[in-house]
Amino acid sequence: MRIRPTLSWTPTGEIAPGTTDLGPVAEALGAGGVLVLSGAGISTESGIPDYRGEGGSLSRHTPMTYQDFTAGPQARRRYWARSHLGWRTFGRARPNTGHLAVAAFARQGLLSGVITQNVDGLHQAAGSEGVVELHGSLDRVVCLSCGAFSPRRELAGRLEEANAGFAPVAAALNPDGDADLTDEQVKDFQVVPCALCGGILKPDVVFFGETVPPRRVEHCRALVGEASSLLVLGSSLTVMSGLRFVRQAAQEGRPVLIINRDPTRGDRHATTRIALPLGAALTTVAERLGITPAPMSEPPLENAERP
Ligand SMILES: [Zn+2]
Fold first, then answer.
1. Distance, CA 201 to ligand 1 centroid (Å)?
2. Nearest C-alpha neighbor of 20 from the set 241, 231, 284, 252
3. Mean pLDDT of 251-274
């Protein structure tokens, strides 16, 4: 059965207006035990575009689905050509003040955990530890035949070698590390197989149309079950993979605080939604709590290793 994933969501009924009052967020963090759930919105200030919202990449681009990826070599050629190009840009992306504030909250012992829907590694680059990557990470590659994991930078080196001179100009970059290229631009791109068994390589990310591994979901459910409140940062909560944790928190009577510019699919479960830019909002909260986020190091080690 071919399942088309949910790619968009339209608000129905009355839309609760967002506020600009950061008081409840400062209060929740001050009390500690806050579980952060972050989405693409926290990385837009690092130059990684959001899928949704104004100018969101979904308006012009359908992300690769698992079904497309496994259907044939042409789709994989297109994916890897675009992803290879996107990786160069991702490698240059730096954590922003939002990521740094989250890391600072964690260092102060105010967080019980961080779950991210992002695959960009920017929370970790900002110094956050123990981040649960709900949708995996672009840093790793998995073989669909033998199941072996390998670092993405290793594959990037092999792709670089196999595609000397591949330097097309992309129309745009997407949050899954994919760049917009035409069929003509990708037709000669050489995909490389698993170095161990010759199998098909896939980034270790959860594609649209694919489910999050059950053990990872259980781990997140347990984190929600232990949190004193859930703080959603920059997610429209369109896909069930994140929304279910908001529902769980609400059902268990835990306050749900959302900072997101636009209305979200989780608003009805939320105590409050604050419609402010994330970097500035989290910096303000940090100041109120007397916390100074660490300055950005130059350049972050993790990104420096990338080609
Ligand atoms: Zn293999």
1. 7
2. 284
3. 96
